[in-house]
Amino acid sequence: MALRTSSSFLSSTSSSCSSLCFRFNPLLFSTQRRSTISLSRSRRFFAMSAAAAAESGGIFTSPEVAKSFDFSNEERIYKWWESQGYFKPNIDKGGDPFVVPMPPPNVTGSLHMGHAMFVTLEDIMIRYNRMKGRPTLWLPGTDHAGIATQLVVERMLAAEGVKRADLGRDEFTKRVWEWKQKYGGTITNQIKRLGASCDWTRERFTLDEQLSRAVVEAFIRLHEKGLIYQGSYMVNWSPNLQTAVSDLEVEYSEEPGTLYYIKYRVAGGSKSDYLTIATTRPETLFGDTAVAVNPQDERYAKFIGKQAIVPLTFGRHVPILSDKYVDKDFGTGVLKISPGHDHNDYLLARKLGLPILNVMNKDGTLNEVAGLYAGLDRFEARKKLWSDLEETGLAVKKEAHTSRVPRSQRGGEIIEPLVSKQWFVSMEPLAERALEAVSKGELTIMPERFEKIYNHWLSNIKDWCISRQLWWGHRIPVWYVSGKDCEEEYIVARSHREALSKAQEKYGKNVEIYQDPDVLDTWFSSSLWPFSTLGWPDESAEDFKRFYPTSVLETGHDILFFWVARMVMMGIEFTGTVPFSNVYLHGLIRDSQGRKMSKTLGNVIDPLDTIAEYGTDALRFTLALGTAGQDLNLSMERLTSNKAFTNKLWNAGKFILRNLPHQDDTLAWEALLAHKFDKVESVVKLPLPECWVVSKLHVLVDEVTASYEKLFFGDVGREIYDFFWADFADWYIEVSKARLYHSGDHSVASVSQAALLYIFGSILKLLHPFMPFVTEELWQALPSRQEALIVSAWPPTSLPRDIDSIKKFENLQALTRAIRNVRAEYAVEPAKLISASIVANPDVIQYISGEREVLALLSRLDLGNVNFAEAPPGDANQSVHVVASEGLEAYLPLSDMVDISAEVQRLSKRLVKMQAEYDGLMARLSSSSFVEKAPEDIVRGVREKAAEAEEKLTLTKNRLNFLKSKVLIAN
Questions:
Q1: How far is Cα 912 from Cα 919, in angstroms, rounded to an integer?
Q2: Could you identify which of 31, 54, 163, 284 might form a hypothetical disulfide with 341, taking C-beta atoms 3.0 to 4.6 angstroms apart as the criterion?
Q3: Nearest Cα to Cα of residue 472 among 403, 520, 419, 440
Q4: Tell me: the pLDDT tens digits for 440-497?
Q5: Boundaries of each Aminoacyl-tRNA synthetase class Ia domain copy (predicted)?
Q6: How far apart are CA 516 and CA 742, in angstroms?
Q7: How many Cα atoms occupy the beta-carbon half-sphere of 609 within 13 Å?
Q8: 643 within a domain of the structure (yes/no)
Q9: CA pair distance 310, 447, nearest whole angstrom
Q10: Domain boundary among 800, 819, 842
Q11: How far is CA 348 from CA 19, 324, 461, 658, in A?
Q12: What span, in angstroms and rounded, lies between the C-alpha atoms of 344 and 305?
């Protein structure tokens, strides 16, 4: 026999079997049915298999060769998929494309469980739709992560003793690009390790030339419509990073602090006329522009309309106002309004028409408005200020207070609310159309409950600060004219050349211009991601015409507002349609106790470490079993269980492959392939177990496919798991052993082999989106496969099933379970075969007796002593009677299972011991000193033990009485 191998499949053909319409895998046929093939022949075939595997480069390993699935093969399988072009959309297939834009991870990032979650879920969608035959595209890429990347490089430079300012902008950005080229691919390679079947030939980076062009175009179009403006407003300011940051980049934590009580004297009053103000930030008092009380607070009614003197400001006066916003019960009920340094104060000041006074420099030091405190760091100023207030008698007291502190997500420093000149996008007009998209059904959000949150946020949206004071990112496409007021005279252009031309046209040839030093918020470019990656603003681009709008956007629910809603708004604004038809939101990954993973708690689980120990498939399966939008508690127990699931799949494959005909047995293969399972007439003709398992499979395919379509991935995983483990592995594989090893009928064995191969292949298909590696490895060992599993056709739905056969086999299962329970109850040795009389009506007897070999094998019955009748046997009084289901009973002779006299003696001794233990427990409970003085949990424990002992005692007495009655009857 000549072996033929290729880079994609290990296959062999023989002239004697050239008529067969499938390829043979030489790794498959190491043994035939174990009872009919010699050891020497098996060894020869193993050698041939090893030679073929070596020639192929060892891409796949047969279950025949390996004890379990080798996780180290995963990377080789992945590279093979990619090299074969399977990740690219097959446009030739036609049909509606299925497109998922990957949420671009930060270029600075390394893999964490959040990445593992989104990669798993998106890859499941992609692999399923690819197998369904749709042109499928998963768009990958990374985000330039302005703040995070700049921070990383600045820290690297600091280690060299170099500051960003020392290098200058051009040299610094050059260094960042160098860093990106060296380290920026880490997260991409790690995502590949999770099995992400993205089209990497279309990988994008948010600073790529084409995407940068899209960002500039978006800015210009929004500006032309009057939706982008420049102004001084309150922002989140990072003193260390020296930039505004988005709300998403601010994390709030409850931290211990101090509440300071300070006297504000009333101008023109006596020494006793003062207001005591409680504040957590006394250093901001230099920016006070008013003092406010609640109009219903009678304590301060007499001061409303007067002036208060701001402490340590050399007598600066501010008005005392009333507003219902003031909380009478917080502190003293008096509020200092510092609109330049508090978001709420800022809004209140705008409502009341108060001036805004800034006392802070961009680096977190106080400015000249603070007088003698100018130049001090904000926290140093706080200490000195309090000391001075104590000296002047204006400090009342200070007390411990827990505050909600805003910290930078990147640097960890406390964020400073600060009024700063920035660029903003007017969001209200954009939000209106995004709200309509959901209300009109153009956009579906899953889970549905997040629609309310989406609607609430968009209905109360604030303008978006899109400028950042960084050097790394998309430079704002605005130029200023030297010598002109930059707030009044600026030019928006696509390039320096275009800006210069516009300036020269207006101001003459000798004009000089300079570009705005700020860059755009990273979220601005990310909001264009679904369509800019496909070629927008060139809407004639092939990818844009073919794949836009995208099908599903999958991401964490925590960025619904900051990213998803903005993409919807931008997509509608620039393309006239929503950028995706469905939004699928997942929750957070928490530890086994439900706590958020953090380095502080030491409960972070590294996906790469998890993969090394449990395999990628087990991790993916575990993550995918969660419910959409709900947080998932990740435990090692779950991972261990799903690793066992991987092994169970492997062992099932090993069993099936070992029990297929030898490759040279052409007649056996022709008989096997003659069995079909896609027609009603072929299914109903099958023997009962095969008809049952094929029918159950066909029901499963319909259920699983429906769940995939609804994106109910948790249901998918559980449905497949239950069928494989409970129906296929625990029942049908055991049933098949009766066909393969005990029937002596080749035709019976053939139908079982065909069913095993058909069902297992279908399971691999259904499970492939969840567990791609082990399923592909097993698939490659099957003789019936025509191509790689990743691009194989999804099982068709609405295939025939025989509901009557399902019910009949369930009766057989019930009978088997009942007999097994009796054997366990009487501690019958597993190897011991017992007799049985099966009693039922004629119809039931007909199909149960037709599977007597199966019943005998599964129940460990003596096949020669299994009788079927419509009435109980004559020795029924010497048997254990079990009822399996209505109209189906069994009588199991006691003498077959136990030595009745010996068992009576054993149970009698055991009963004495059990009674003594029970009496001891009851004695403790009858003691008032114990019940009244012992701890409650101890008493409760004793009561539980007593109840359990009483139950066991009753069961043992009943069983002993039953055995004694049988001894009397026998005598």
A1: 11
A2: 284
A3: 520
A4: 999 999 999 999 999 999 999 999 999 999 999 999 999 999 988 776 789 999 999 9
A5: 77-635
A6: 84
A7: 7
A8: no
A9: 52
A10: 800
A11: 86, 11, 18, 78
A12: 22
Question: Residue 928 maps to which CATH number?
Answer: 1.10.287
**Segments forming the whole domain that contains residue 775:** 657-800
Interatomic CA distance for residues 816 and 812, integer angstroms: 6
Contact 689, 851 (CB under 8 A): yes
Q: 542 and 571 share a domain?
A: yes
Distance CA 761, CA 768 (A): 10
Same domain for 195 and 138, yes or no, is: yes
Choosing from 754, 785, 800, the residue where a domain stops is 800
DSSP 441-487: TSSEEESTTHHHHHHHHHHT---EE-EE--SSS-B-SEEEETTS-TT
Q: Which helix (H) or strand (E) holds 151?
A: helix 146-159
Q: Are both 722 and 732 inside the same structural domain? A: yes
pTM of the model as a whole: 0.86
**In-domain check, residue 258:** yes
Q: What's 787-833 look like in SS3?
A: CCHHHCCCCCCCCCCCHHHHHHHHHHHHHHHHHHHHHHHCCCCCCCC
Q: Do 558 and 678 belong together in one domain?
A: no
Opening angle at CA 769, ends 765 and 774, nearest 5: 70
- CATH number, domain of 87, equals 3.40.50.620
Query: What is the C-alpha separation between 768 and 222, in angstroms, rounded?
Result: 45
Q: Are 204 and 214 in contact (CB under 8 A)?
A: no
Write the CATH number for 315: 3.90.740.10
Predicted local distance difference test score (pLDDT) of residue 58: 64
To 10 degrees, the CA torsion angle through 692, 698, 703, 708? 140
Helix (H) or strand (E) holding 862: strand 861-869
Residue 442: what are its φ and ψ, rounded to 5°? Answer: -75, -20
Instruction: Pick the closest to residue 423 from 542, 332, 339, 517 (CA basis).
Output: 517
CA distances from 635 to 84, 225, 597, 643, 644 (A): 36, 52, 12, 13, 15
Supply φ then ψ for residue 176, to 5 degrees: -65, -40
In a domain, 269, yes or no: yes
- Asked, for residue 460, whether it belongs to a domain, the answer is no
Report residues of the chain scoring pLDDT below 50: 1-57, 971
Q: Are residues 790 and 811 in the same domain?
A: no
Q: Looking at the structure, do residues 527 and 665 belong to the same domain, yes or no? A: no
Q: Are residues 201 and 128 both part of a single domain?
A: yes
Q: Domain containing 664 — which CATH number?
A: 1.10.730.10
How many helices (H) and strands (E) are present in the chain, helices listed first? Answer: 34, 31
CB 352 within 8 Å of CB 409: no
Burial call 542-573: b when 16+ CB within 10 Å, e when fewer = ebbeebbbbbbbbbbbebbbbbbbbbbbbbbb
- The Cα–Cα gap between 548 and 542 comes to 10
Are residues 379 and 412 part of one domain? yes
Classified as helix, coil or strand, 237 is strand
3-state secondary structure of 302: helix
Q: How far apart are CA 386 and CA 395, in angstroms?
A: 7
Task: Give the count of domains, the chain.
Answer: 6
| Residue 835 burial (CB count, 10 A) | 19
What's the chain's length in residues?
Answer: 971
Task: Please give the DSSP secondary-structure letter assigned to residue 948.
Answer: H
